[in-house]
Design brief:
240 residues; alpha/beta; Rossmann fold; 2 domains; 38% helix; 25% strand; binds adenosine-5'-triphosphate; binds magnesium ion
Length: 240
C-alpha cells in the first residue's frame, strides 16, 4: 500500500468539508477522485499533502505516518501535488519554476538544473524554457505545474484538475503524459471533472459527495452506479 487514507475528516467551522473518508492507493495505480463542485476533493489533497492538518483521521505514505508532517517533509518523503489554481512564481521563466521543484531534493544548483532541464523536455516544454511561465496559455501553465511537481521526484503524484480548461487535443496530450509518467513508475491520484479521461486513465475511482465517500470501484462499476449518477455523473456525463 503506497497511500492509506484512514477515516480522514476536516471541519471548517460548521462545515464538514471532508467526513470520515478512507481509501488506499497501491503502488503503480492511477486512481481517480471525482465528485461535484465543493465535494471536498481539493481539501482531501490538502490533508494528504500536509497543507492542512485534519480534524481527525490518519494518512500513511510508504509505510510511515505523515498525518502531521509539514508539506515540505511530505514532499521529501516522495509525495508531490499540483494546485487547482495554477500560480507560476512571479516573473520566473519555465525552467526557473521547475528548478524550484528540483531544489526540494537537491542543494547543488547544477544538479537541480540538470533535473529540471530533463523534466522540461519530458513534459514538452522545451520551446518555452525561457518564457515567463505566467504569460503562457492555460494548457502550458498546467504543464509547468506538473513539471514543477515532477522535479521533486515523487513516488506518488496528486494531480488537481490538470485537464480543466483544455481543448480536446490538449486533453489527449496531457492524458498521454499521465500514462507515460505512470509507466515510468510514478503512482497517480487525480482529481478530474473530464469524465471520459478519468474513465479511460484510471483503474479505480473514488467518489466523494458532501465530504463523504459514496462509492469506490473500477470505472465501469462507477459509471453505472445509481448513487453516483444521481449525485454527480447524471449531468456531467451529458455535457461531455
Ligand atoms: N480553507 C478553507 N476554509 C473554509 N472553507 C473551505 C476551505 N477550503 C475549502 N473550503 C470549503 O470546503 C468545501 C470543499 O471544498 P473543496 O475545494 O475541497 O471542493 P472540491 O471538491 O475540490 O470542489 P471543486 O470541484 O469545485 O474544485 C467547500 O464548501 C469549500 O467552500
Ligand atoms: Mg477542487
Amino acid at each position: 500500500m503506497l497511500l492509506e487514507v484512514q477515516q480522514l475528516s476536516k471541519r471548517f467551522g460548521g462545515l464538514a468539508a471532508v467526513s470520515n473518508v478512507s481509501f488506499n492507493v497501491l503502488e503503480g495505480e492511477i486512481v481517480g477522485l471525482i465528485g461535484p463542485n465543493g465535494a471536498g476533493k481539493t481539501t482531501l489533497f490538502n490533508l494528504i499533502a500536509g497543507a492542512f492538518a485534519p480534524t481527525s483521521g490518519k494518512v500513511n505514505f510508504a509505510g510511515s505516518e505523515i498525518t502531521h508532517l509539514p508539506s515540505h517533509r511530505v514532499c521529501k518523503a516522495g509525495l508531490a501535488r499540483t494546485f487547482q489554481i495554477v500560480r507560476p512564481f512571479g516573473n520566473m521563466s519555465v525552467i526557473e519554476n521547475v528548478v524550484i521543484g528540483a531544489f526540494a531534493r537537491l542543494q547543488v544548483r547544477a544538479e537541480a538544473y540538470a533535473v529540471a532541464e530533463a523534466i522540461v523536455d519530458q513534459t514538452g516544454l522545451t520551446r518555452y524554457r525561457d518564457v515567463a511561465a505566467r504569460s503562457l496559455p492555460i494548457a502550458l501553465r498546467k504543464r509547468v505545474e506538473v513539471a514543477r511537481a515532477l522535479a521533486t521526484r515523487p513516488r506518488l503524484l496528486l494531480l488537481d484538475e490538470v485537464m480543466n480548461g483544455l481543448t480536446p487535443t490538449e486533453t489527449r496530450e496531457i492524458m498521454s503524459l499521465v500514462r507515460e509518467l505512470n509507466a515510468s513508475g510514478i503512482t497517480i491520484l487525480l482529481i478530474e471533472h473530464v469524465m471520459p479521461a478519468v474513465m479511460s486513465l484510471c483503474s479505480r475511482i473514488v467518489v466523494v459527495h458532501h465530504g463523504e465517500k459514496i462509492a469506490e470501484g473500477p470505472p465501469a462499476e462507477i459509471a453505472s452506479s445509481p448513487r453516483v449518477i444521481e449525485a454527480y455523473l447524471g449531468e456531467e456525463f451529458l455535457i461531455q
